[in-house]
Amino acid sequence: MRPQDILTPQPAGLYCKPGDFYIDPVRPVARALITHGHSDHARAGHGRVLATQETLDMMQLRHGEGFAAATQSVRYGETLTLGGVTVSFHPAGHVLGSAQIAVTCGATRIVASGDYKDAADPTCAPFEVVPCDVFITEATFGLPVFRHGDAAGEIARLLASVALFPERAHLVGAYSLGKAQRIIALLRAAGFDAPIYLHGAMDSITRYYQSRGIALGELRPATGARKQDLAGTITLAPPAATSDVWTRRFPDPVTAFASGWMRVRARGRQKGIELPLVISDHADWDGLTATIAATGAGEIWVTHGQEDALVHWCGTRGLSARPLALVGYGDEDAEDALPTTASAEGGS
Amino acid sequence: MQSFAHLIDRLAYEPGRTNKLRLITHYLAETPDPDRGYALAALTGALSFKHAKPALIRDLVAARADPVLFALSYDYVGDLSETVALMWPADRRGRNAPPPPTLTEVVDTLATLPKRELPAQLSRWLDDLDETGRWALLKLITGGLRIGISARLAKTAAAQLGGHDPQEVELIWPALAPPYTELFAWLEGRGDKPVSRDPAPFRPVMLAHAIEDADFDKLAATDFAAEWKWDGIRVQAVTGRGDLGVPVTRLYSRTGEDITAAFPDLAPALGHVGAIDGELLVVRERRVQSFNVLQQRLNRKTVTPKLIKEFPIHLRAYDLLAEDGEDLRDLAFMERRARLERFIARLGSARVDLSPLVAFTSWPELAAARADPQSAGAGADSEAIEGVMLKRRAAAYVPGRPRGEWWKWKRDPHIVDAVLMYAQRGHGKRSSYYSDYTFGVWIATESGDQLVPVGKAYFGFTDEELLQIDRFVRANTVARFGPVREVVHEEEQGLVFEVAFEGLQRSTRHRSGVAMRFPRINRLRWDKPPRDADRLETLERMLKAQPAGKPDADAADHDRRQDIGNGPTELL
Ligand SMILES: [Zn+2]
User: Are A297 and A346 in contact (CB under 8 A)?
Assistant: First the structure.
């Protein structure tokens, strides 16, 4: 069977005909396999959902009980047979519970990697290379200008700034699911043991991470803290909150934003960021190209992001590559990074 | 190089002046000589070497990277140096991971390196630096390092290292050269104060507040002297005696920039040792010409005999800061004035004269003079008068804008000085020019003063001025968002517009809370540093002073749309 007959892009998402299921569908379907808990991949309203336990838990946290008619959890490495194919889930290193989904039909194996990163992350299982014939890769940071570097170095810059401006609060915009917890864990690893403050929107997901055994130290709600007590502290908040009236409770806040987009200066300036931190939960250019090579796949399908450059690169390596043109997926940070009239108004 | 790169990277994002100072001072305290000295030189614009051309950078990256990937990346990032810094494929093979170059190494090497060796040297440095280091290096060697730091700010940061007044550093600065080890030794209490040998130093100027109606109640007319407010360029003309007793004359802009070379016709008229504060004007047949005429002289790159003849330059003096080595700045204004009158008389030059005092005994009397300068003694010069200046008779000459000493009382109440913040391409035949401008005024924030946009204008300037602004925008872009460019707008760097408008309204759409009706660019103030532009408080007072209930809601909404459009204010 040709690979495109095993997995086919359709308006609802990537469809597996021989197995009769979709991967990360953007519309309600009868049977869905979900790579990870981010909202553009894990939507409510499907019939049956197969995912890792963490991803199922996150979907329930976000959408409530009954987000799907039935659910089934799967462990990393476990093999299941669905119709004419076998599927298995493998760590994607993106966020807690994130998985690449390998679909094997006869002698052909296709790996849909969802979102992934090959960089170290203390809050989730490390990315595993899954040898395959066709590798489906994201391309969020699919340009050679995106090199994320060492996240610990960025954390050191944040801590140096806290030391230099002890009378100011440091407000770090970070996506609520995954990025925020990773930043906290990195701060702890760097020896920062003071309480870390959280925006209310991050509370439940962060407590969920702690319930899964991820040590994050003492966390406090930013709401209710006295302004003068927030001097010299670090607070994590959803990126949109760092530019609205919510920030007025902080003494002269230094606005940081942790995202791979912060590599490009205009992105940070556009948002009025004072301390851009290049920390991403997606693979950078070197990560994308190294992973593609490591899978041994001869055929590469590129989903959302900067497809052109990655498809071109594959061509120069003798790999057959094409963009999949799936719609409905984005980068969680990029959505937050869009300047909104609403948040600009909030400050007036 | 790395720590310097990280400093300027951080400075480029930091809007607050006090925070910038802290960052620079911290860097200077932590960094050893001579690296910090070269950094100070870079920040004050004192570092000079032959700049590399963008073509060289393109060649370097072409030798390393796939052209398609480069084109896609450049298209995305929009800035050549930044693109190359980010995508540079470092090659460390066969090299034992050498440490990245220090700033001193870069400066020293560039000073002596033969041109043909530059590409290979640059490639090696790019291999050894990180993304931020590469960005800083490329910006430095292409002369594109624009981070909104003025020389003044950098010197202030250095002064803070030893708790000194920045003015002290300013005065000895001309005697210093990179890497300033002598300066740092003094600042850190390890050495003597370097001696300034500049015979004609600049002295920071005293500035006026805009007066409001309510202020008059608190001020006694008899405490003040009044002069015309001339519509020219504020300058300081300083003459000192050089090493061999030869007089040295320098002409400074209000920010201390040496502009002597542009006015060879004026310097010979300033033969006596002293420092005059005054206004540069063009005078033809004993009549002061309008600012537009003066600007035609200012805008020329080269000063030809023809230009000098057509636009004879003139200094109208209103203060004397020093005479024969004596500092007069602590004297009362009227005492300085008496010294000035004698000084000007001794010069005896047709090119230099006194700015006359306007006689008055009460505020209503002065108001009448301001409304009609021609009948109040200004005669034919009245066209070049934009109001009156009030100076407290007993006031010392204090740098900056001390409260309550000097006031400016402009003729047209609906004019403010605002700073260009964003520029957008125009439409139709202007589509190739940046012709729509968003400008702002200062507001106080917790981290110091910041500019807040108050309006958008796209007319009021001549075609030639449009070309000049367009050139300025392109050369001073700090970020691009689609058709919009963010233009440098810092305390010491940027372009000031004199903006005229018909009225003001409250607006919830603007962060400033006010919107202008029909704003237009009245004039370009190339001579004025942005920090001297107006503050939001001035607009708020104008708003309160307006007769209430003027515009109806529909008209107000229409104006807002017209003023702001879909433009850059939404990006803030
Ligand atoms: Zn994701």
Answer: no
Ligand 1 centroid to residue A305 C-alpha, Å: 12
Which H or E run contains B500?
Answer: strand B496-500
CA–CA distances in Å: residue B544 to residues A262, B78, B213, B503: 42, 44, 11, 11
Quickly tell me which residue has 């796949």 as its tokens. A297
A275: which chain B residues are within 8 Å (Cβ-Cβ)?
10, 13
Q: CB contact, 8 Å: B58 with chain A?
A: no
Of A131, A132, A148, the residue nearest A140 (C-alpha) = A148
Helix (H) or strand (E) holding B437: strand B434-445
Backbone angles phi, psi at A93, to 5 degrees: 65, 15
Question: Which pair of structure tokens corresponds to residue A186?
Answer: 């990195």
Q: Classify A250 as helix, strand or coil.
A: coil
Nearest to B87 among A145, A252, A268 (CB): A145
User: pTM for the complete prediction?
Assistant: 0.69
Local confidence pLDDT in tens for the 572 residues of chain B: 999 999 999 998 888 889 999 999 999 999 999 999 999 999 988 887 677 788 999 999 999 999 999 999 999 998 899 999 999 988 766 666 778 999 999 999 988 888 889 999 999 999 999 999 999 999 888 877 777 778 889 999 999 998 998 878 887 887 889 999 999 999 999 999 988 777 888 888 999 988 877 788 899 999 999 999 998 999 999 999 887 778 899 999 887 788 898 999 998 899 899 999 999 999 998 889 888 788 888 877 788 999 999 999 999 999 999 999 899 999 999 999 999 999 999 999 999 999 999 999 888 888 888 878 888 888 888 878 888 999 999 999 988 888 889 999 876 658 899 999 999 987 766 777 898 999 999 998 877 889 999 988 887 788 888 989 999 998 898 888 777 899 999 988 999 999 988 678 787 767 788 888 778 888 899 889 999 999 998 888 887 776 543 333 333 333 322 222 222 222 22
H or E, element range at B337: helix B333-347
Chain A hits for B571, Cβ within 8 Å: 270, 339
Closest CA to A222 of A276, A185, A170: A170
Please give the full DSSP string across A197-227, using - where no structure is assigned.
EE-GGGHHHHHHHHHTT-----EEESTT--G
Asked whether the beta carbons of B8 and B136 are under 8 A apart, the reply is yes
The shortest CB-CB distance from A266 to any of B15, B26, B481 is to B481
Q: How far apart are CA A170 and CA B136, in angstroms?
A: 25
CB pair distance less than 8 Å for B68 and A347: no
Residues forming beta bridges with residue B442, ordered by sequence position: B451, B535
Chain A residues whose CB is inside 8 A of the B86 CB are: 144-147, 263-264
Q: Report the chain A residue with the minimal C-alpha distance to residue B567.
A: A341
